Amino acid sequence: MRSGSALSTHRNVGSVMRTMPRTLLLLGGLGPIAVAAMTMQGYAALPPQYDRWNEFAAVVGDSAIPRKLGIGNPADRIERIGDGSYRVHGGKCFVAVMLSRRTPTGPQGQVMVGGTVVSVAEVSEPRCG
What we know:
The chain is α+β, with helices and mostly antiparallel strands. It has two domains: 1-40; 48-128, no CATH class. It is built from three helices and five strands; from the N terminus they run αααβββββ. The protein has helices spanning 2-39, 48-61, 64-69, and strands at 77-82, 85-90, 93-102, 117-123, 127-128. Strands 1, 2, 3, 4 and 5 form a five-stranded antiparallel beta sheet that branches. The longest helix is centred in the N-terminal third of the chain and has 38 residues, at 2-39. The N and C termini lie far apart (100 Å). 10% of the residues are buried.
């Protein structure tokens, strides 16, 4: 019995040895691709609803907007006009708000994986009417 199992093991080793060169060739060809994929910088885009919430957070968190609207016109409505463009209404006045976006960076300026950093770029003078 033992000699039969040893013979079948020997046959399996032979088939493995015949396929080994093809496997090594395949792995050798994939090696540079795998290395290139691992060294590429990663970029991750958040789903659109998170980008929109980040935009709203930037508008709501900006201290220049209530100062420009003034004490008599507290903000009561935020209106999205277009991509990165908002109007914040207070009473009969509003200010136009433009947002800016940038890729997140680390302490040494290296590009980091994550959502876009949104901040207020410009707040117009109030328009009343």
